[in-house]
Structure formats: C-alpha cells, structure tokens
Amino acid sequence: MSKKTKKKLAEMTPRERNAYRRKKRKKRRRVILIIELLVLALLAGAVYLMTKIGTINFTEIGTVEKNKLDARTQNLLSGYTNIALFGLDNRENGKLDRGNSDSIMVASINNKTKEVRIVSVYRDTYLDIDGEGTLRKANSAYSKGGPKQAIEMLNRNLDLDIEDYITVDFNALVEAIDAVGGVDVDVSEEEVQIIKENGYAGEVAYVTGHEDEDQPIKPGTGVHLNGVQATAWCRIRYTASQDYGRANRQRIVVEQLIQKAKKASPAQLDKLITGVFPDIATSMSVTELIGLASGVQGYELKGQTGFPFAVHSANLGKKAGSVVVPCTLESNVKALYEYLYDETDYTPSDTVKSISKSVKQNSGLDEKDALNYGYGTELTEDEGSSVK
Predict the structure, then answer these.
(1) Which range among 13-17, 79-83, 172-176, 197-201 shows the weakest confidence by mean pLDDT?
(2) Contact 363, 325 (CB under 8 A)
(3) Contacts of 63 (CB under 8 A, 6+ apart)
(4) pLDDT at residue 7 is higher than 70
(5) CA separation, residue 81 to residues 159, 162, 203, 238, 340 (Å)
(6) Angstrom distance (rounded) from CA 95 to CA 99
(7) Which of 112, 206, 251, 262 has the fewest C-beta atoms lying within 10 Å of its C-beta?
C-alpha cells in the first residue's frame, strides 16, 4: 500500500474506510471477472478454430529448391515472409493437387512493419517451368508437378525464397465472397455479356453447386456482385486486356475480401471459415496458420500489381501458344525487387540471367519491344488490341 493511500485511510472515519475497502474489493472482482471472460472467449475461439482448421487439406511438399542467392540478398529476404497463392481452374471441387493455376500470386509480408504487398504473376507468362530449360506458360507448372513445382517455378524465375503455399479452387472464392456480402466492382458492357450471355456465371454455378440467381447485371461503377458472379468476372480473359485484365480483376477482388474480412462480424467470419476451409490446401502447419491468422488485424495491404511489368504478347507456336513475354526477365526481376523490397540496385542471380537469355532468344523480344512499363499499370485497350 502506498504512503498516499495510507494517509488517505488515516484521515477517514471507520465507516468511510469500510466503504472504501468494499468499493476496492468490488472493483477488483469486476476486473478479475472481465479478465476471466476474455480468457474464456479466447479459449472458446481457439477451440472453435481448431475444430474448423481440421477441414483444411494439409500437405507435405518436402524441401523446395531455390536459386543460389548471395548473402546480402538472403539477409534481405529474411525480413519477409513470402507465400505463394494459387487459384485452380478445376472442374472438380476439392481436387487441389493438380490443375492449371488460373491465378498465381505472391504475398510478401514485411515481418517488422506487417505491410503486405501482393504480386499476381500473369498465368500465361513465358517462364522456365521445370528447371530443365522448358519454357512454357507459368500456369502449367502446377498442372505438371503440383504445388511444389509451381513454387519452385516462382523461386527459379523470380529469385524468391518461397517455401509455403495456399491453394484454393472456384468454390472457395465463391464461398468467401458470399460470406462477406459480395463485392462492388466496375463492370463494362463487354464483361456483362461474358458473365451472363456467354455462360461464365452458369459454369461457375454448375462447377461449385451454387445457385446462379440469374440476377441482372448492368454495366457501371460499383456494381454489386455475388460470389458466383464475381468469380465469373475474375475469370474473364477474352477482352482487349486479355490475361493482364484478368489478373487485375483478381487483385481487385482479393483486396476487397481482405478489407471486408477485417471488418466482418462473428457470424460472417463463421460463414467464411466454414465455407472456405474445406476448399484450401496448404503446406503450412496448424501453428503457422494460426500465427498468420492471429496477426491479420495488424496487416496493412500496401500495394498490389501484376508481373511482369514490361511485357509483350506473342504466339510462339504449338508448344507454347499465346504467351506473355517478359521484356526482359532480368530487368523485370530487378523491378520486382524494387517493388517488393525497396531494393533499387538488385543484381539477379545467374539462373535468372540464363533464363532471361533463353526467353529472349526463343521469342525474339527485348526491352525495346515492351508494350507497357510501371507498377500495376495494365495494358490499355488500344495496346492490348494490337497484340497478336
């Protein structure tokens, strides 16, 4: 007891002292009760989360190969957690070990500031998919060798140190969007036609087992879309912006999902977890996932962009088809390091330089052939329509 409190008690009458002590005891009991309730709530939340987390598909992928990076680069990357995110273009829910990755993203988390930057790699990007010099579309790596080969494809071509992944399918995206009450996006007349009249929404509804409510969609800004409609919107590629536009739509929806999830009610979070967890596959452990989820309120999305930055589209024949060519891969990886890690003088590894040389030789395209350059800047319709 402090001297000040003793002096205060000494100046009181016996009745005042008794009243003062009863009040203090009552206050202590109230504080203890609040703490107990908080602990019980946290325990209940943990038990609830553990019952749900068991529905996730946990997968061991073994040691992931990475490029030989110098000590300075390794030290730089140690300050970040890089995770590969894949969205599969599957026609069978829950089959997450194979399939073309319709969406390929890298989430880079600054371990100190909790700032998050997201990079979506265009699925048609012309890259080395197997470490044996096979240049094909980036999305075929997952189809050929599952998540391990897809992660190694990203590490090999982008000089990254990714070890873990999270994969979802159509159904997970539909469930997530519906759980947070839908998303509001800008929709063009052409996109409306593809979603409704060309059957994109109907296909998503059929594959996922969700009802296509056949709600009319009108072009405009801030158009509200449900899960089926928004997933169909994300999959559109047959517009002037092609694969660039699709990747941009996916980033827009992901950003809205992140913002809405942070503000979601307990009921919405329950719906989100119950609906999405069974449609997730990951190499992360339960402890790692809970650690990631527990800090979500502190994360701040600082930016999202498409990769490569400097590109040209080309048709390279039967084996590769229509692809997105980085102009060049080496210079794009330099720009990637500047975007993700504020590294302005990065020197790519010998592996990236070698792949970059092969891409240039096979495509005949160099930096001077790039159609656009800039973080997150998509091709304009005029630029896209000029691509063969």
Answers:
(1) 13-17
(2) yes
(3) none
(4) no
(5) 14, 8, 36, 34, 11
(6) 8
(7) 112
Q: Which of 256, 255, 252 minimizes the C-alpha distance to 241?
A: 252
Which CA distances in Å does 171 have to 210, 220, 252, 351? 8, 26, 18, 37
Cα–Cα dist 134/125, whole Å: 13
Give the span between the Cα atoms of 187 and 224, in whole angstroms. Answer: 9
The sign of the CA dihedral 88, 100, 359, 149 is positive
CB 128 within 8 A of CB 141: no
For the chain, strand residue ranges (E) read: 57-58, 80-88, 101-110, 115-121, 126-128, 135-137, 164-168, 183-187, 220-225, 280-282, 300-307, 311-315, 322-326
**Helix, strand, or coil here: 145?**
helix
Instruction: Say if residues 101 and 94 touch (Cβ distance below 8 Å).
Output: no
Mean pLDDT confidence for 102-131: 91
What does residue 144 show for φ and ψ, rounded to 5 degrees?
-75, -40
Residue 44's pLDDT band, with cuts at 50, 70 and 90, is: low
What end-to-end distance do the CA atoms of the chain give, in Å? 83
In eight-state DSSP terms, residue 194 is I
- CA count, 13 A, side-chain hemisphere, 269: 14
Mind listing the pLDDT tens digit for each residue in 317-338? 888 888 999 999 999 999 999 9
Extract long-range pairs of 312-318: CB within 8 Å, 24+ residues apart: 312/363, 312/365, 312/369, 312/370, 312/371, 312/387, 313/124, 313/242, 313/371, 313/384, 313/387, 313/388, 314/363, 314/365, 314/387, 314/388, 315/388, 316/126, 316/362, 316/363
Query: 101: Cβ–Cβ under 8 A, 6 or more apart, which residues?
Result: 86, 87, 88, 89, 123, 138, 139, 141, 142, 143, 150, 167
Q: Which residues does residue 281 pair with via DSSP β-bridges, in sequence order?
A: 57, 167
| Phi, psi (degrees; rounded to nearest 5) at 195 | -65, -50
* Closest of 61, 58, 93 to residue 170, by C-alpha: 93
Separation of alpha carbons 45 and 53, rounded Å: 12
User: What six digits make up the tokens of 3?
Assistant: 């001297």
Strand order in the sheet with 300-307: 57-58, 280-282, 164-168, 80-88, 101-110, 115-121, 300-307
Report the residue count for the chain.
388
